[in-house]
## 1
Amino acid sequence: MTLTKYECSDCMQKFLKELPKCEHHLHLEGTLEPDLLFKLAKRNNITLPPTFPPTIEQCKTRYDNFSDLQDFLDHYYIGMSVLVTEQDFYDLAMAYFTKATADGCLHSEVFFDPQGHLERGISLDVVVSGLSHACEDARTSFGTTNKLIMCLLRHLPSEDGLKVIESADKYYQDGIIHGLGLDSSEKPFPPELFEECYALLRSKFPEVALTAHAGEEGDYTFVENSLDKLKVTRIDHGVNSKHSESLMKRLSEEQIMLSLCPLSNVKLQVVQDVGHLPIDLFLERGVPFSINSDDPAYFGGYILDNYVAVHTRFGFNLEQWKQISLNGINGSWCDEGRKQELRMLVDKVCSKYVDVL
Ligand code: HPA
Ligand code: ZN
């Protein structure tokens, strides 16, 4: 059942596009659109397995019918197998930054999965070099800002995670990689399995930015344990926090931001419709959140599509959208100067629309 309760007028769409947005939950490998995927498969002489849809059209149909997170991940890991050279990683990231900029996204904090490449014999240097050059070029060409966040795959042993953290040392040292996250199949692999990995990185870099996927398919204790055991300052997804009043109170008091992904949650059957997400509840309880696209090539929408989907279900007014935008800025990992710049831009856009919305 699709709940379309509110119209998103042309004027509202324009406003949402112009409203300065920050994206905090975006897997670069999940931005691999089928056309680029097939182009890179050809360029690198890679034959995809027969379980992978053979045409762009068939990809679209299959991507519309994921049964859950694992069903998606099975495609996601096959998809990323076409990424081989530094140029491939650069092209992938640049295509994302181009689209995000067109959507009015001014600051992006983007994930990548080194273990998904290392296990195929692609070195960390190739991956980071391609991605970080794209980050640099996006900053100079578009005037946007960005941060790279390395994720550990929770279906792999934590010893493997420790090794990756050691090998990424120089990139954390140089600030090329800014943070650490945790993704992949959630329920069988709770956060406490990765306590040592997070402790190791914190011991090397006490100021490092930490996040983890939690409460997407796992229950709200996955969110609590990520905060308590991994010492993260942000939660990716976290929708299941809605089941605990005391957790919502804590998220609000400690201003721990949830990076929500509405269209992803529908595509992976976390909820049946965007309107069933606790977005109004979180806003009411003062739980900070941002709105993100997660894996836009697989879930059928980039950041603006997610904003529009939220508007059509919740019909927020200008003040509420302003609050959402400011919460995203406050929860970002850019410096205070950049946050100030972004807040001023929010004021400017909101003043422009205050009499017409
Ligand atoms: N959840 C967990 N792992 C992931 C996701 C997600 O939504 N996207 C890519 N890896
Ligand atoms: Zn994710």
Note: The chain has 18 helices and eight strands.
## 2
Amino acid sequence: MSPMRNIQLAPSLLAADFADLRGAVKLLDDAVDIFHIDIMDGDFVPNITMGPMIVAALRQHTDAVFDVHLMVRNPDVWIGPYRDAGADWISVHYETAPHLERTLSCIRESGARAGIALNPGTYPDGLEYVLNDTDFVLVMSVNPGFGGQNFLVSSLKKLSALRTRLDEKGLSLVQLEIDGGVDATNASDIVRAGADILVAGSSVYRSEDPLQAVEQLLANARAGL
Ligand code: DX5
Ligand code: ZN
């Protein structure tokens, strides 16, 4: 495992007060470099969140990286609108993208970093021929659609398998992101298994002190290096 790994925390705005998303961004803007933004379409996942207009509105209030996680069917048509709205990273679900190489190329051509998200039940082996075309892999550690669910420990095995495969292929620049049920108790195991970027919603925004929660999560995560 590369000693150069840089561990980052991406608070998920899904757990913030939707009536004060600007406040949620401002609160953590100095503490983190990335905000994770969940886009749900009510079809691929049984919930609806926000669209490009809200992302564009938030874009006015921070220079942080916007990590836009598309939980939508037919993601290709949404790459342009979310990029225009200010997305820096765009991930699409493997389960929604039959022409994955083309989708990833479209994301990269738009100027964003491209990611592939995997549902808990999806084998990582299907990524073998697109690992060169992706900038990061997002391993879902809950079934997508809702915040506040319990972390699925099977995702640690998946992270390890992906980290091993990336190392074997010499793809040290491809990052591994984990999303769902991440908190201070599992952060070090997650990093030990190979994750670089930890998404955390409830354990940050639903805590009494989100700033302190970020610091604790990062400290615990880095202990896993
Ligand atoms: C779930 C989303 C996650 C969610 C995680 O579908 O993709 O990003 O915000 O929330 P927590 O950290 O509460 O599990
Ligand atoms: Zn997410």
Note: The chain has one domain: 8-222.
